[in-house]
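Inputs:
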Amino acid sequence: MTITRFAPSPTGRLHVGNIRTALHNWLLAEKAGGQFLLRIDDTDAARSKEEYIEAIDADLAWLGIEPARVERQSRRLDKYETAFETLRAAGRIYPAYETQQELELKRKVLLGRGLPPIYDRGALDLTDADRAAKEAEGIAPHWRFKLDHEEPLIWEDGVRGTVKFDPKLLSDPVIRRADGSWLYMLPSTVDDVDMGVTQVLRGEDHVSNTAVQIQMFTAMGAAPPAFAHEALLVGKEGKLSKRLGSLGCDTFRERAIEPEAIIALLARLGTSLPVEPIADRTILLETFDLSTFGRAPAKFDDADLKRINTAIVHAMPYEAVKGRLPAGMDEAGWHAVQPNIATIAETAEWWRLVTGPVDQPEFTSEDKAYLGEAAQTLSWSDDPWGALTSALKESTGRKGKALFLPLRQALTGMNHGPDMGELLPLIGESEARARLERAAA
Ligand code: GLU
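Outputs:
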């Protein structure tokens, strides 16, 4: 069974980039009839916050991305300890004592000589006595995973094709700090094994982590999952800007953007499939395919989101929105304003034209006389607007704008808006006559 996971660190709110990764993992699992897991990477106790975990849950629920299971790394520390001991006993983890400054200096020296700044494995040369001396000085070690320089690092990436690394050109990663806390690398691998993750789909900023983690999988006697690294999401300006980095579900909710619009956009952004206003997830699922993912950064443009949102709203049936409409707005009201809105929130502005009061402009005396005649002509039928305008056309000889605009202005206070044929029945006979009379006075 296909098992994917989304593994956010709860050190902030989810932004569009994270949401996209979550969505793609969900699509990947759903399409295969598998499971999508949410794993909270909260080993960094200082920076992880409960409020962010709650926000992640709430955002995914709002988006309709439902995990089959939720795990938290902070509740699994014993598992990491066990793996650590096993790998250490197998000679794949070793203690190192360099300070940050020493490491920085080593890096500078190598870079100065034009060499890659790879850790020199100085700690492996220490004798037991050297280590004992360090500990006696009160220096606790941090821990590194020892890469096997002979084990070739190669995988078939779901997006990038064959990816190769020379392990000699990678530093042995630090996996645990001197205070015993965990860095991301080992816990993630332990979890992927334990939770049976079959596909790891994440951002291309993790490509070199994958190289290292593949050796961790094999060192733990597990087959690595399939990996795919998607190109990063960037703004129009070409990078993940501050704006994009803080653009998340709270902003979308405030702007009354439908979750389906975000899903439709992010599902296909950066792929060769057309970004379309598809509100039906089964279509997005059927067409989701890693082989359509490109290597170039995916560009997020707010104008696309607005366009998709508008199109999705224009196609929404009354049943789907009725709980979110202004008080008193029925199916006919929804139908009247739907073509004029870009978000559901905008229904309120148009509904005020029905409920009133409306703010009429000052009319010329000629128009006042015309509107007075309209008040008298108004009669009620299935189509009061059609009846009114054809009668007035006949009796006044007006046509086009001169015929329609003063009526619209008197009845709604606006120069444009929803179809009057649909609005007038909603305004009702006596209120419509009162508005026409007021305009004529
Ligand atoms: N917590 C890591 C991150 O947010 C997870 C990366 C992964 O998917 O393995 O970058």
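Remarks. The pocket of glutamic acid is lined by residues 7-9, 41, 184, 188, 202, 206 (CB under 6 Å). The mean pLDDT is 96.
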